[in-house]
Automatic annotation (TrEMBL):
Name of the featured protein: RNA helicase
EC nos: 3.6.4.13
Lineage, top ranks: Eukaryota, Fungi, Dikarya, Ascomycota, Taphrinomycotina
Family: Belongs to the DEAD box helicase family. DDX56/DBP9 subfamily.
UniProt function note: ATP-binding RNA helicase involved in the biogenesis of 60S ribosomal subunits and is required for the normal formation of 25S and 5.8S rRNAs.
Amino acid sequence: MADPLLLDGSVAFQSFALDPRLQRSIAKLNYSNPTLVQAKVIPLALAGKDIFARARTGSGKTAAYCIPIVQKILEEKEAGNVDRGVRALILVPTRELAEQAAKFLGILLAYCGKSIHSVNIASNISEQAQKFALFPKLDLTSRHLLIDLPDIVVATPSRIIPHLNSSNLSIKSTLAYLVIDEADLVLSYGYEDDVKAVAHVIPRGIQTFLMSATLTKEVEELKSLVCRSPVFLRLEEDEESAKLAQYFVKCKEDEKFLLLYVILKLKLVKGKIIIFVNNIDRSYRVKLFLEQFAIKSCVLNSELPVNSRIHVVEEFNKGIYDVIIASDEKEIAAGDDDDMEEDEIIPKVVTEAPDEDVIERTEVAESQSKNKRKKLRKSQEYSISRGIDFQNVACVLNFDLPTSTKSYVHRIGRTARAGKAGMALSFVVPREELGKHKACSFESAKKDEKVLAKIKEDQVSKKTELKPYIFNMSQVEVFRYRLEDALRAVTRSAVREARAKEIRQEILSSEKLKRHFEDNPEDLQHLRHDKPMHTARTQNHLKHVPDYLLPKGGKIAKEIGHVSFKKSSDNRIRKARKFNKRKGKGRGKRDPLKHFK
C-alpha cells in the first residue's frame, strides 16, 4: 500500500506506521499533518539514523524527535528485548524548555499506560527529591513495582551532571537515544564542559539528535563529538519565511516610547504582541510607562520564579494576556565573540616583571572573573526569551535591538509559527541620536546600526528582506506632550520599587497560592500577572485619547470597562424629576415670574 499523501503532495502522519496509542495522542494534539522538519526527521529517525537538523524556531522540532523515540521504545518493549533503565536522555538549555518538552511527552504518553515513564529533573526541586524520581517505586505491602525506572529523562546539562557523578543515574548500559535540543543555546549558555562530560559517559553507537535554529562553530564541534556520520538537514521553509514580514524603524531614543504608545493605544497591531527589551529594569520601565495610559501588560524576566514564568506563558497562550514585555538580558550579559572587544578576549602582555601588589590585584581580578562567569552560567537556566512555545503571536517588537543576529533569529521565531502569518518590528537608534535623551537611553543602542547591517546581510542569505517602515511622524508628534507627562512619572525609584514588589508578589504566588488555587480555581484572578504596579504617579488624563488627537478618520475601539469623565445617562427617576421641575410640575409651588405670559 502506498504512503497516504495529502493533496499538496506532503506526507500525512499515517504514513509513518506509528503505534495506535501514539496515533491517538497525535490526534489529541490536533496535528493534521507533519511540518517540514517532522516530515524529514521522523522517517530517518525511525530508520535509526543520527540526525543533525537546522530548522527555524517554532517549526516543530520537539515533536520531530519525541515521536520517533517514543515509537521505538514502544516497539522494543513489545518485543521484550530491552533492559530496564533510561533509554533516552533529552538535554535542553533552560528549565522552561525542559518543562515544555516534559509536558509534550506527557501528552504523547497519555495512552501508553505504564509502558513508558518519563521524568523531568530540571524542575526547581532539591537534588535529593530528584534522586527519588530516578528510582523505581515499590508497593511496600505487596512488593510489586508501582513505577519502573524512567525510560525518558529530560534535563538541563547542569542538572544531569550531579546525578551522573553520584551514580543516582546510570546510562552506560541502557541509553539508546541522546537528544540535544537548541544545541546552539546549550553551548552559548556555558554548558560546553557539561555536554562534553555527558559525551564521555554515554555508550558508543547510540542514536543522537542535534537540533538547532542557528549553525555555529561550536555546534559543528559538538556534532563531531556525539554523532556518527549524521544526516544533515538544513530545512529552510520558504512558505513559512514568506509569512513573516520583517520591518525596522530608525527613531530617536524617546521616540521608541512614543511609537510603542501609538502602536498599542491606536490598535495598529491586531492580536498578541511580545515586546523584547535588553534589561530587567528596562522591562519594568516600559510596563510602568504603559500603565500611565491604562495599557495592561505582563513582565517576563529571569528574576521571576520558574512557576510564575511558566504560568505567564500558559496564560498568554490561552489569550488571557495580549502584551508581554520579555527581557533578553542574558544575551547582553553573555554577548557573542564577534561583538566583544579585543581586549576582553586577549589579556594584555606584561613586558616587565610585575611586583607583588600587581600579582595580588591580578589574582583578585581573576577570582572575580571566575565568580562572575559562574554566576552568569547559573543564571542562564532562567532565560525566558528564546525557545519557549509562545502561541498565536501576531507581532514581535524589538523595543531594544538585540546585540547579535543569532538572538534576532530566536526572537522573531516567536511569531509566524505553524503556518500562521506574523510581523517583526525593530526599533533602531541612529548613531547621531545617541545620548540625547538620558532618561530613555540604553547602552546597547551604541551597536544598533552595526547589528542592523549584520541582520540585513543574514536575512539576504536566507532570501528574506528586512524592510524600513515609515511612520507619518507629523501625525505621531501630536501625542508627544502625553509622552513627556508619562516619562516624568516613571522615575528610577519607581522602577526599583516596581521590580522589588513584583518579585515579592510572584514568590508568594508561585509557592503559597499554587496549592490554594488547585482547591479554589474561582480565585484564579489573584494570580493575574498584568495587574498595575501603582508605584508611579498616575495621571488619569493619559488613559484616554481625545478625538482631536486622532489621525483623520481614525478611531479607537471602545475598551471594556471604559468610564468617561462625565456620566452618559442619569437614573430614570432622577431624570423625570429634573424634567418635571423644568416644567413646573411636581412638588412645590410654581414661580409666577418664570411662567408669566
